[in-house]
Amino acid sequence: MQILNSLNEKQKNAVLSENKRILVLAGAGSGKTKTVIAKLLHLVVDKKVKPTSVLAITFTKNAANEMIDRLIVSSDDTS
């Protein structure tokens, strides 16, 4: 997956982890949203997980909207 190329080692480990639950905790501007988007795309595109089987939680509605927007743009890039 092309999005993996732009991630650092810790981000790649989070994306490729087989754990059912992952906490992405880091400071502002560190790439948390990018990592979560990559994880979601990895699950749905590579692992063929049904999108309705995935739960992603954010602390604010603003963050949720940002993730949705980025997911739409990123999924267009993988098509």
Summarize this structure briefly.
By secondary structure, the chain is mostly helical. 52% of the residues lie in helices and 0% in strands. Helix 1 (9-16) runs parallel beside helix 2 (32-46) and helix 2 packs across helix 3.
Word description of this protein:
- The chain is mostly helical and 79 residues long.
- It is built from 3 helices and no strands.
- Helix 1 (9-16) runs parallel beside helix 2 and helix 2 packs across helix 3 (61-78).
- The chain is globular.
- The protein starts with 8 loop residues before the first helix and ends with a helix.
- 11% of the residues are buried.
- The mean pLDDT is 88.
Element layout with pairings:
Layout: H1 9-16, H2 32-46, H3 61-78
Helix pairs in contact: 1-2, 2-3
Features:
single chain, mainly alpha
Task: Report the β-strand fraction as a percent range.
Answer: under 5%
**3D shape:** globular
- Provide the low-confidence segments as ranges: none
What is the count of helical runs?
Answer: 3
Describe the oligomeric state of these chains in a short phrase. Answer: single chain
DSSP strand tally: 0
* First-last Cα distance: 11 Å
What is the rounded Rg? Answer: 12 Å
Mean pLDDT: 88
The description of the largest β-sheet is: none
Q: Into which percent range does the helicity of residues fall?
A: 40-55%
**Helical/strand content category:** mainly alpha
SSE pattern, N- to C-terminal: HHH
